[in-house]
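Same chain as my last thread, 142 residues:
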Amino acid sequence: MFVLDRKNYEKEGSEPYKDVYYTGLIAHELVHTYFNAVTEEHCEPIWTSEGIARYLAGENSYEERPKRFSKFLNFFNSSMNNEVYHESRYAVELLIKKYGKTKFIKLIKQFPTITSKNIFNKLFKKIYGFNASYTNFNKLLD
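reply #2:
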């Protein structure tokens, strides 16, 4: 939270200060707060939490869209790297734009019941009608 102080943004953050980055960071963290409340702090798979936070913070407007998905699904409950941030926001955007926000909300409301990647995958398929795989997410890009 220290970096949220505008005076500390450049000193503690990873990017030079710009209003769009700063307001995006504030929005990103507020989305995490809401997401944690809705999911009772069950944030797995991680790509959904980071994806919705970055998507709703407007970060897709100034970041290049991936040509293909190849890494974000690897981050169910493991430590993250930049790939989960970059790809997951576009995966979430595609899910919301192609299937509507109601399905995504239905998915995240079930997070307290998810105890494994297998249970998540079954729930995802039930809601979206396809397996959460790179092949299927890459089809959404076309």
